[in-house]
């Protein structure tokens, strides 16, 4: 069965974005890009909320072809072109996009079907950013793990990852990694 893994940068006080959705506080560098790139390359499916999907779609299809493209840009752009994409959106209903499935209704049933599907070679579906989509999936107990990059900053306010959680979510830690820039990777699976 496929697993949905929420992949996010997070502040020490649990925020995944500032009050207006800003991410200018999240630290990313070559060491993090290389680390993340290894795991992403083992995954063939990405999941997004509409806002994050639109951001990704506006950048990654052409990022690798730009004259100043970094190796990360080239590699991720190639991966993005091949990866299956799942977008959770009520406003994109009925749209047909290449290599992309839009889920607008019957979220729980459709996500369960995707998780049971044998298509693709990877067991992980990485949910990139997308705090609103994450909140909806958390409410329906559809997230199987968290791949968090804890940034050494306290924001004080913003968009909380674990907003309005109604019951405990027991986690088992799979790994941790400390980066030179001060970011700490925490990788958890949900214990059911």
From TrEMBL:
<dbReference type="Pfam" id="PF01872">
    <property type="entry name" value="RibD_C"/>
</dbReference>
<dbReference type="InterPro" id="IPR050765">
    <property type="entry name" value="Riboflavin_Biosynth_HTPR"/>
</dbReference>
<feature type="domain" description="Bacterial bifunctional deaminase-reductase C-terminal">
    <location>
        <begin position="3"/>
        <end position="183"/>
    </location>
</feature>
<dbReference type="GO" id="GO:0009231">
    <property type="term" value="P:riboflavin biosynthetic process"/>
</dbReference>
<dbReference type="GO" id="GO:0008703">
    <property type="term" value="F:5-amino-6-(5-phosphoribosylamino)uracil reductase activity"/>
</dbReference>
<dbReference type="InterPro" id="IPR002734">
    <property type="entry name" value="RibDG_C"/>
</dbReference>
<protein>
    <submittedName>
        <fullName>Dihydrofolate reductase</fullName>
    </submittedName>
</protein>
């Amino acid at each position: 069965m496929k697993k949905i893994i929420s992949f996010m940068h997070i502040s020490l006080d649990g925020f995944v974005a500032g009050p207006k959705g800003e991410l200018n506080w999240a630290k990313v560098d070559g060491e993090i890009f290389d680390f993340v790139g290894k795991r992403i390359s083992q995954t063939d499916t990405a999941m997004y909320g509409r806002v994050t999907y639109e951001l990704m779609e506006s950048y990654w299809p052409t990022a690798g072809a730009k004259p100043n493209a970094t190796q990360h840009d080239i590699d991720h752009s190639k991966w993005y072109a091949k990866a299956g994409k799942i977008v959770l959106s009520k406003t994109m209903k009925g749209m047909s996009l290449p290599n992309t499935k839009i889920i607008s209704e019957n979220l729980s049933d459709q996500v369960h079907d995707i998780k049971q599907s044998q298509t693709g070679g990877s067991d992980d579906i990485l949910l990139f950013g997308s705090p609103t989509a994450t909140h909806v999936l958390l409410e329906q107990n559809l997230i199987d793990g968290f791949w968090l990059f804890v940034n050494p900053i306290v924001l004080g306010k913003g968009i909380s990852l674990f907003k309005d959680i109604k019951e405990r979510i027991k986690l088992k830690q799979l790994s941790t990694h400390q980066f030179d820039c001060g970011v700490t990777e925490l990788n958890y699976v949900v214990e059911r």
